[in-house]
Design brief:
Number of domains: 2
Order of helices and strands: EEEHHH
Distance between the termini: 33 Å
Number of strands: 3
Radius of gyration: 20 Å
Largest sheet: 3 strands, antiparallel
Strand order of the largest sheet: 1-2-3
Shape: elongated
Number of helices: 3
Helix content: 25-40%
Oligomer: single chain
Amino acid sequence: MAKIASSLPYNPEKYTYRVRWSEEDQEHVGLVAEFPSLSWLAKSQGEALDGITKLVGEVLEDMVASKETPPAPLSLQDFSGKILVRVPPEQHRELAMEAAEQGVSMNRLISKKLGG
């Protein structure tokens, strides 16, 4: 992986990356969750990851130089564990009934359904 300047307020290697195949481009595409408009195409997965990581480093340098605040890496953010989700009243009723039938709280039921 390419070395990135460590003088940045955020280390590019702490951002959330993903590499996937692009059938349209016939190449691997490197993506970063915190910068959804950025991508990097390459012949191999490793090159795609290196490319997008280097690009994020360059974007961070530009943002710092122009006094913009970069998005915080997801890996450094604190999460409360609380999610507010709106569902149709019928679905809410079904979930409440299912939770009651299982003898658990609706929170426990939904957490289980989400895989938690």
